[in-house]
Amino acid sequence: MGVEKVKNIESTLLSDNYYILNKVTFDYMMKSGVWVNQMREVYDRGDGAGILLYNREKKTVILTKQFRMPTYLNDNKDGMLVEIAAGMLDKDNPEACIIRETGEETGYCLKKVKKIYEAYSSPGVMTEKMHFFIGEYTDAMKVGEGGGLDSEAEDIEVLEMPFEKAIDMLNNGEIVDTRTIVLLQYAIIHKLLD
Ligand SMILES: Nc1nc2c(ncn2[C@@H]2O[C@H](COP(=O)(O)OP(=O)(O)O[C@H]3O[C@H](CO)[C@@H](O)[C@H](O)[C@@H]3O)[C@@H](O)[C@H]2O)c(=O)[nH]1
Ligand SMILES: [Mg+2]
């Protein structure tokens, strides 16, 4: 273990209205060895999981489309975002979470998924770690309509499309969600649908 670079961490709650926003102050030792006092606002919504659903035979993928208010407030005209199926872990483990969310959001009941990455979503601001999965689907796995939970007023459109079309949307700027970009690029790099 190297020399400890952080000490005197103190958190003050700014909001627990829905998730948790803390003001965190701490002393941090710079490369020069000098200690500085710093403050960061840190948003804690727990961790999340997302999945690229793909069908090797049909050469298709399933994505979702939904309204995302934060993007509407920042340059996304109608606020609609094309994304992988994804959700927050709540108290599930990542694998159970993504299987549940896939069912709720897309209507497909997966038995097997493969974890490929674990990565921080927005490390300067959020504690959230995202668990990335891929999963093969077939038409026989469709057991419901998807669309999200009415109880949470989710209004999710399910988009099944040729992989080629998803790549076009990636390249022409129609797909602007980082997690979705990561998984589509993974599929290209690893030739998942060749
Ligand atoms: N009332 C209320 N509801 C909220 C609030 N924030 C989120 N919700 C609701 O909480 C539910 C969360 O749905 P999930 O499917 O579990 O999560 P998600 O919003 O799809 O999040 C996924 O994508 C995020 C990135 O866009 C990820 O940050 C997250 O980890 C996850 O992968 C949604 O119905 C959403 O509308 C809030 O402040 N107030
Ligand atoms: Mg979701």
Write the layout of secondary structure elements.
Blueprint lengths: L5 E10 L4 E10 L5 E10 L3 E8 L4 E8 L1 H4 L7 E4 L1 E4 L5 H13 L7 E7 L8 E8 L20 E6 H9 L6 H12 L5
Parallel strand pairs: 4-9
Antiparallel strand pairs: 1-2, 2-3, 4-5, 4-7, 5-6, 5-10, 8-9
The structure holds guanosine-5'-diphosphate-alpha-D-mannose and magnesium ion (MG).
The site of magnesium ion has 4 residues, from strand 7 and helix 2.
CATH topology of the largest domain: Nucleoside Triphosphate Pyrophosphohydrolase
**What's the overall geometry?**
elongated
Please give the alpha-carbon distance between the first and last residues: 45 Å
Strand content: 35-45%
Largest sheet: 7 strands, mixed
CATH architecture label name of the largest domain: Alpha-Beta Complex
Binned, the helix content reads 10-25%
Name the CATH superfamily classification of the largest domain: Nucleoside Triphosphate Pyrophosphohydrolase
CATH class of the largest domain: Alpha Beta
Distinct compounds present: guanosine-5'-diphosphate-alpha-D-mannose, magnesium ion
The value of Rg in angstroms is: 19 Å
H/E order of the elements? EEEEEHEEHEEEHH
Tally of distinct domains? 2
Overall mean pLDDT score?
96
Number of contiguous helices: 4
The poorly predicted ranges are none
By secondary-structure content and strand pairing, the structural class works out as alpha+beta
Strands, total number: 10
Pfam families: NUDIX
Cofactor: Mg(2+)
Binding site for Mg(2+): 86, 101, 105, 154
Subunit structure: Homodimer.
